[in-house]
Design brief:
heterodimer, A: mainly alpha, 0% strand, elongated, B: mainly alpha
């Protein structure tokens, strides 16, 4: 009975995490299309929400990685998954409060690894999966997106450089409807699957599913719905700040950046690599910008991404371990997760109220 | 390096190759389509080279067909996993 209560808390927390992931990442997905005038904000956001929802259904490789390849599902309990989630949310809130860069995806994996280590020891971590499927792709993917976008914009200028600018601009604006849609689809398929993987891991830990099981349909549907609703909700906030936060680029650069980001995320998803989609999309944007003019790139953003790479996994792991230790004080039952959930909810409400009084927040990346 | 790690690096390599081919291939095909549209517009407004204008239109259609085929192929590969 108490493990079912913990399971329900884990599922609700994971879906809330998924919602905030969509909320944070709307800017990354739609910014380029809105910035170049390829799509009206309302249309771009509605399309991104819909395609995030659809994207969640096209693959389960990343969910399988998160559920089976990062930590040993045989020794994990729902409380460990819960502590990992709260650890990730805590790190995301801290970075959001101080305006530091973060990656929700890396925080999620780091949190679960940290709580698993605190509960069971380092034997709970599947090192090969963690290194081969999380750490290496985390470094390679943004660099790959940067390179592909840079090469793509070079090819574009070479082929259409002597054409009339009006035709070229209109053509790539139409192309951005497709490339932006693909990026939203890619975002949905990679990011929603992390939540599916976490819920599946909790279901396996609870004995509701067998080891190595795929996520059930209701898990896929609820994760898809949560990220789509988050994307749609986040969008209306972004409309107000579009003018100040978006990098100015032409339609061809937007097409190259979105195309490169979508290609890298979709290819990685096919092989089950859980990526930071924010890092990949930023990598594509910087690649398309740097190929035209190096000084056009906000290199500070690149520095922030590097910081996020280095900090997020270990910091979220530390918080996951601390939350597990605190939860464990109240015993093995549901009391610990219930108390920690109430404290976390109170803390979130306090932070949002304080932030609302002091000014607009700086969102963490996904 | 263990067998599992070797498989992972092979998959990483395949991800890199697939990303480069998809990213650059679709971009090239779409750029060629836009080039075709641009040439067609230019030639058809002059009206003195109808054959060349038709050729440019065919290039544009071919570029768009390649983009469409690449998208369908990508979605089929993703959903078949």
């Amino acid at each position: 009975m108490s493990s079912d209560v913990i399971l329900v808390i884990v599922i609700c927390t994971a879906l809330a995490f998924d919602f905030t992931n969509g909320f944070h990442d709307t800017a990354n997905v739609v910014a380029t299309s809105i910035s170049t005038g390829a799509a009206r904000p309302q249309v771009a956001i509605a399309m991104a929400a819909l395609l995030n929802f659809v994207g969640a259904f096209i693959s389960i490789s990343v969910a399988a990685t998160v559920a089976n390849d990062v930590v040993d599902a045989g020794v994990i309990t729902p409380t460990i998954v819960f502590a990992g989630l709260i650890g990730a949310i805590t790190w995301n809130l801290i970075t959001w409060w101080f305006g530091l860069p973060s990656s929700s995806s890396h925080a999620l994996i780091g949190g679960v690894v940290g709580s698993a280590v605190a509960a069971v020891g380092f034997d709970a971590v599947l090192t090969e999966g963690l290194v081969g499927k999380v750490l290496v792709p985390a470094v390679v993917a943004p660099v790959l997106a940067f390179t592909v976008a840079g090469l793509a914009i070079g090819i574009i200028y070479r082929i259409v450089g002597k054409q009339r600018p009006g035709i070229v601009s209109r053509g790539f604006k139409h192309g951005q409807i497709v490339s932006g849609g693909l990026l939203a689809l890619a975002h949905g398929t990679n990011d929603a699957q992390k939540t599916m993987g976490i819920i599946t891991l909790a279901l396996i830990a609870n004995g509701s599913l067998g080891a190595g099981a795929d996520p059930p349909f209701w898990v896929i549907f609820s994760a898809a719905a949560a990220i789509a609703l988050g994307t749609y909700s986040g969008g209306w906030r972004i409309i107000k700040t579009t003018g100040t936060r978006i990098i100015k680029m032409d339609a061809a650069q937007g097409f190259a950046a979105q195309g490169a980001g979508a290609a890298v995320i979709l290819s990685s998803t096919h092989f089950g690599f859980p990526l930071s989609t924010t890092h990949v999309i930023n990598g594509g944007v910087m690649g398309a910008g740097a190929a035209k003019r190096v000084s056009a790139v906000r290199w500070g953003v690149a520095g922030n991404i590097l910081t996020a790479w280095l900090l997020t996994l270990p910091a979220a792991a530390a918080f996951g371990a601390i939350v597990y230790g605190f939860t464990h004080i109240f015993g093995e039952g549901a009391a610990g997760p219930v108390i920690v959930s109430l404290i976390a909810l109170g803390l979130v409400a306090f932070m949002f109220l304080r932030r609302a009084q002091r000014g607009a927040p700086v969102p963490a990346g996904g | 390096m263990t067998f599992a790690a070797l498989i992972e690096s092979k998959e990483m390599l395949e991800t890199v190759v697939a990303s480069v081919i998809a990213g650059l291939g679709v971009t090239s095909a779409f750029s060629i389509a836009i080039w075709g549209v641009g040439r067609y517009t230019e030639l058809s407004s002059r009206g003195d080279r109808p054959l060349a204008a038709t050729g440019a239109a065919l290039v544009a259609a071919g570029g768009l067909a390649v983009v469409g085929a690449a998208l369908v192929f990508g979605i089929v590969v993703m959903t078949s996993n």
